[in-house]
Amino acid sequence: MVVRWIGVPGGSFQVPPPEDLDGLAGPVSGRHALPSPVCGWVAPYRVYDLGSRVDRVAWVETVLRHAASPQDLTDFLAADLLAAVWPAVLLPGWVREWWEDAHPHLAQG
Length: 109
Known about the structure:
The protein has helices at residues 36-39, 53-66, 70-76, 79-85, 93-102; strands at residues 31-33, 47-49. By secondary structure, the chain is mainly alpha-helical.
């Protein structure tokens, strides 16, 4: 699969992948909004419907891009949801490699 980066501004991907994805305790269903520091300026009032694949992918992309601390990853990502949408998540190549080096099973998705 070829992944292209579209270049949406904002965010810095500054938080490294956690050592263990099992500690991720984010939501996997329902409708949720991200708090301002995590959603960035891109979508401060957006509500994500995690029943929608498009919204699940957008949720993961937004959290990865704008997380300011490891706790943000823990609070807003879930291991199963992350693995399910990983192939569709648009990331810079170095970020994808960073996460897949830490969690090789993501690359097999």
